[in-house]
Write a structure and sequence with these properties.
Length: 59
């Protein structure tokens, strides 16, 4: 019985570690996505608002 409790404890500890690792990786992915979105928004905001408003069709 004592060995079963010890094995259960080890299994629970491993499961907890695996879950914590998964959460950490997910947080890293979310931070990377957030950074990419922020960079994209900054690039869009820096564009000239008049860009593309005029079309020169003379040849």
């Amino acid at each position: 019985m004592d060995m079963a409790i010890a094995a259960l404890s080890v299994d629970m500890s491993a499961a907890k570690l695996q879950q914590e690792l998964g959460v950490s990786v997910l947080k890293m992915a979310m931070q990377a996505d957030t950074a990419a979105v922020e960079e994209t928004l900054e690039a869009i905001e820096s564009l000239d608002p008049a860009l593309g408003q005029n079309l020169d069709i003379t040849a």
